[in-house]
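dumping this here before i forget
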Amino acid sequence: MKTNKYLIRFFQVGSGAKGGDAILIRLFDENDKEHLILIDGGYKETGEKIVNYIKKECSTQHIDVVFNTHPDKDHIWGLVTVLNNDDITVGALVLNRPWKDAKFTKEMFDDHRITDKSLVKRLKDAFGYADDLEQVAKDKQINIYKGMQGINCYNGIITVLGPSETLYKRGLLESGKTPESYIDAGLKDYTPTDYSEENYVKGKVIEWYDDEQTSNVNQTSLVITLTLGNLKVLFTGDAGKEAINSALDYYENNGGKASDFTIVQLPHHGSRKNIDPTILGRFGTPEFIISCPPEGEGEGHPSRRLINKILELKPQAKIYVTKRVNFIFHKNVPVSNCTIQVPATTTSKIDGR
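structure:
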């Protein structure tokens, strides 16, 4: 693939306080043929926007590979719309299916009435959006692959850094969406908190609360990297702290450096429960991007404390948000129908938990 021609579009997803993720990557090979990769699809209406954008702006209506980071509605529902569109073709779908890919057996759960068949049904009911997407892909005869640590395409240009199969199973076992298990997965529980916020003052240390945790199912979210010459992008979905650290460890154990990432998507719409100063310290000074809703500050999407901590640790950092715009990173690809937003580098631009 050409290293001097690409476009990464973060679609604005949701309204009010409800957001999501939808990211379209446009790559070009040495013959200038366009290749599309889609990471998540937001809600149904987001899927319609993705389809319209591809038809209007792209030279192909074929998506080489679609990734679903995890089966929350705000990440997966728009993918059903994309795959259902008769004008769009898809080469492969990377989708983790808890009833298949976690390799659960009835013996893992306390309820002795569970059979292998009823366990599959319970998991399909609990993760209904993934079940719906699987059915569409099967109807369209699209190959489905599980998304675990180490899979890649385009000779490693796109690589899944996480989750590992072990972390995927652990996250699901501790999730409230699966039957109660006798196995202690060792993950910390989701912690609802309501800490106050602090304005950023240059030179002041922003207090951080290490007891805050995201949901365990978020630990199963895919973490994906794009490497295109000097461009190194980290996509994090809704991954939690353990998932991100595990992904970065895998990346560094295989010759990469977390400090080399040039663009980092902050996880879970900028929530402070999914990342901490130690993880931030593993990065250099990349450009940060947050997929967040227009009015999500009250729900901590994005977290003002997180924004301020980044500015404290990395004063030169640029932080971009999609709260009211589609945001792009591009090189040598014409741009249309997209508002470019200035960095949110002062606390006046970010207000919320």
